[in-house]
Amino acid sequence: MRILLVEDDAMIGEAMVRALKAASYAVDWVQDGSAALTAFESQHYGLILLDLGLPRRDGLEVLQRIRRVDPDTSVLIVTARDEVEERIRGLDLGADDYVPKPFEMSELLARMRAVIRRRGGNGGPLMVSGQLTLDPATRQARYGEQQAQLSGKEFALLQALLLRPGAILSRRELEDRIYGWNEEVESNAIEFLIHAIRKKLGSTVIRNIRGVGWLVSRES
């Protein structure tokens, strides 16, 4: 999943980028409110991590602008402003969760997974569609009788498809969801990842619609 990190503190931002990448997220990092809105308007993100005390535009103003045009993108506030009134205001303006600094990265990652599951219409710990099950906490997948540990990029691709079961995602859409600004993408990278997932879980786990893209089936 592609994440927009909005954090003006260089030390905190660098540490968060490392941890998020290690957790298999693609990360675009900006350091002020205006840059956050520019990035948001030009790219699809699965989740935004938003500081409030930002240069150029305050984080709450950024949140209001985002919510005016997009009620669906998940936004998790991560800030040193921990007063109850600030938390209430952030949540009332449309944030999905509010994490005060300082925080443990493991807790932030767990809160991110919970927000992503809720946005996908699933409050449980697993992502499920028919015979396919994916555990975001461990990156383990099961399809029928096959079970496998996925690499970071394999997990990111399968998660992107499971967030919209039954929907066809093109190569460009999948690239946008699993690679960040500074990551080089080989021309056959998506096909390589799909081949690797099929090798681990079975050839029918991901369906190809020739000339259009790929999907996982929506099944009861």
Annotate the secondary structure layout.
Elements: E1 2-6, H1 10-22, E2 26-30, H2 33-42, E3 47-50, H3 59-69, E4 74-79, H4 84-92, E5 97-100, H5 105-119, E6 127-129, E7 132-135, E8 140-143, E9 146-149, H6 152-162, H7 171-178, H8 189-201, E10 207-209, E11 213-215
Parallel strand pairs: 1-2, 1-3, 3-4, 4-5
Antiparallel strand pairs: 6-7, 7-8, 8-9, 10-11
Strand content: 15-25%
Q: Given the helix and strand composition, which structural class is it?
A: alpha/beta
Note poorly predicted spans: none
* Count of β-strands: 11
Q: What characterizes the major β-sheet?
A: 5 strands, parallel
Shape: globular
Number of helices, counting only DSSP H or I runs of 4 residues or more: 8
Helix/strand order: EHEHEHEHEHEEEEHHHEE
Ends distance: 24 Å
In brief, what are we looking at here?
The chain has 220 residues and is of the alpha/beta class.
Description:
The model has no long low-confidence stretch (mean pLDDT 92). It is built from eight helices and eleven strands. The chain has helices at residues 10-22, 33-42, 59-69, 84-92, 105-119, 152-162, 171-178, 189-201; strands at residues 2-6, 26-30, 47-50, 74-79, 97-100, 127-129, 132-135, 140-143, 146-149, 207-209, 213-215. Strand 7 (132-135) and strand 8 (140-143) form a beta hairpin. Helix 2 runs parallel beside helix 3 and helix 6 (152-162) crosses helix 8. A five-stranded parallel beta sheet has the order 2-1-3-4-5, sandwiched between helices. A four-stranded antiparallel beta sheet has the order 6-7-8-9, covered by helices on one side. The protein is globular and about 50 Å long. It has 220 residues and is an alpha/beta fold. It is 41% helix and 20% strand.
